[in-house]
Amino acid sequence: MENRMTTIELAKEDQKFSIAHFTIFSKSNRERLHGHNFTVSAQISAPVSDEGMCFNYQVYKKKLKDLCQSLNQYTILPQNSPHLKIEEEGNQLIVKFNHEKIPFLQADTLILPITNTTVEEFSHFFIKQLTSDKKSLKEHMIKSLVVKVSSGPGQSGTSQWSSESVGE
């Protein structure tokens, strides 16, 4: 069979999460706490085998669904923001921002290794999670991965990964 590449697009109904967040614009300006229903889609490029398929993409559908579920119905705080300081006080997290102290219940909050709670950062977070299993990427001969996170119609951020950019 000829050597050819294809791209599988995964955009299933269960690839979504609902969160509360606020975007930080500067050291003194942020949005009010509010929520979004985010959707996630992925494009995965790999060679087509002699059997007429790339790989069992159920693996990546499950990974995307599980990642979405792990974020669902939480308030998300950015761990790497230079403008926030997050402290634990009993069962609360106290966020210090521009002379404000904003309390959150720990049980309702996730702190992610991101700089801001934006679609740009969420798409990068998903890429990092999906590409952390190098063995799986190699086994499935994945050449590139694109993740798009949308916070509503017409508003999204996209991040990309390529095996060429990491020297594989």
Q: Please report which band the strand proportion falls in: under 5%, 5-15%, 15-25%, 25-35%, 35-45% or over 45%.
A: 35-45%
Total strand segments: 10
CATH superfamily: 6-pyruvoyl tetrahydropterin synthase/QueD
Write the element-wise H/E pattern from the N-terminal end onward. Answer: EEEHEEEEEHHEE
* Number of discrete domains: 1
User: What best-fitting shape do the alpha-carbon axes yield?
Assistant: elongated
Helix content: 10-25%
Per CATH, what is the topology?
Tetrahydropterin Synthase, Chain A
CATH hierarchy, class? Alpha Beta
Could you tell me the mean pLDDT?
94
CATH architecture: 2-Layer Sandwich
Please mark out the parts with pLDDT under 50 across 5 or more consecutive residues, or reply none: none
Using only C-alpha atoms, the radius of gyration works out to 18 Å
Tell me about the largest β-sheet.
7 strands, mixed
The secondary-structure class comes to: alpha+beta
Number of helices: 3
| Through-space gap between termini | 24 Å
